[in-house]
Design a protein that fits this description.
With 69 residues, the protein is mostly helical. It has 2 domains: 1-38; 44-69. Helix content is 84%, strand content 0%. The radius of gyration is 19 Å and the shape is elongated. The termini are far apart.
């Protein structure tokens, strides 16, 4: 009986973790799309290196803003 309850809780935990992961992915996708849209960037012109550079610059910008407060 106790094993069954444990298995049920484990299944619920796995399901919640999956849902959290999916929600994080959705947020990342929406954020990326908004940044690209607001900056008037073209998807077709972005290489992986450019994406990494933009992400680094954006991150540094946000860190600077956090320090300014």
């Amino acid at each position: 009986m106790q094993q069954s309850n444990l298995e049920k809780q484990e299944a619920k935990l796995k399901q919640l973790n999956k849902k959290i992961k999916e929600e994080k992915y959705k947020i990342e996708q929406r954020l990326g799309k908004q940044i690209i849209s607001q900056a008037n960037l073209e998807y077709t012109n972005l290489s992986n290196d450019q994406i990494k550079l933009l992400a680094k610059q954006f991150s540094e910008f946000l860190k600077e803003k956090a320090v300014d407060h």
